[in-house]
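# nightly structure sweep
# worker-07 picked up a monomer target from the shared queue
# config: single-sequence mode, recycle default, output format = structure tokens
# input follows
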Amino acid sequence: MGDLAAYSGLFIAAFSAATILPLQSEAVLVGLLLTGNYPTALLITVASAGNVLGAAANWLLGIGIERFKDRPWFPVSTERLAQAQRWYQRYGKWSLLGSWLPIIGDPLTVIAGVLKEPFWMFLILVTIAKVSRYLVLTAITLSWM
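# output follows
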């Protein structure tokens, strides 16, 4: 696999996994790490950039999505949206440190947009969460721990 294809595939997997699509990027990162053909720091950087940008896409989606909540095709009930908003308001911006978690992480980033969390704060907290996850995964994969 060429370098550009490997890095592009990793970026796309990481970006897609951070959106509301049910995908995983960890297997792609682990596979590339195990080949030993790519610089570890660059793999972590590419995966993190893709994952953070995917989360930013969710935030943007959240900024504009609430205006459609009364439409019949809207994918989330009004009650579930209100429940998510209450949860986010209760735990606040710090809950974005859990944006790396499966199942709840992606909706957190959308709700942060719905509730107009300032983008700069969103970006800082999500970057910490996403980079930390890939660092831990890399450490486990390469037996650094």
